[in-house]
Amino acid sequence: MTYQDVYAVVSITEATAVRRALPTVTAQSGIERCRAESRELPAFWMCCGQQDSLVSAACIRFRKMLLSAGAALTWEDGPGEHDLVYWDQHLESAFRFLADHV
Predict the structure, then answer these.
(1) What is the pLDDT along the chain (102 residues), one digit of tens a residue?
(2) At what angle do helices 56-68 and 27-36 cross, to 10 degrees?
(3) Domain residue spans in the chain?
(4) Residue 44, strand partner residues
(5) Torsion of CA 62, 57, 81, 85, to 10 degrees
(6) What is the per-residue pLDDT for 27?
(7) What is the rounded CA–CA span in Å between residue 83 and residue 22?
(8) What is the distance between the alpha carbons of residues 53 and 45, in angstroms, rounded to a whole number?
(9) Residue 56: in which H helix or E strand, if any?
């Protein structure tokens, strides 16, 4: 048995235990909870590279969900992948957003 085999088994076991211990929270359930408690949705900032094959589709779905819920969303995209080169180009904008919203 290799280190990777052991680590993968431990990771899967830990993830399963965490999932069982915590309530399931989704973006939709968070939006619904804010509405039920008459709270405003927080402002969101997102960026995603157009060549990001890992999370692009999920980011676009999340973006649509937030916009349809009326959330304030700052969205940036452009050429790039899921890597530090792309993220580095957006750090200043992310920090500016945080400074304005925290």
Answers:
(1) 454 444 444 455 555 665 666 667 788 888 898 899 999 999 999 999 999 998 999 999 999 999 999 999 999 999 999 999 999 999 999 999 999 998
(2) 20
(3) 1-39, 40-102
(4) 73
(5) 10
(6) 84
(7) 30
(8) 20
(9) helix 56-68
Burial grade of 19 (CB within 10 A; 0-12, 13-18, 19 or more): exposed
**Tokens representing 76?**
């940036």
Q: Please give the pLDDT value at position 7.
A: 47
Smallest CA-to-CA distance from 96 within 52, 55, 40, 43 is with 43
d(CA 51, CA 63): 17
Nearest to 98 by CA among 58, 48, 42: 42
The tokens describing 87, both together, are 């993220």
Which of 100, 102, 98, 43 has the alpha carbon at shortest distance from 72?
43
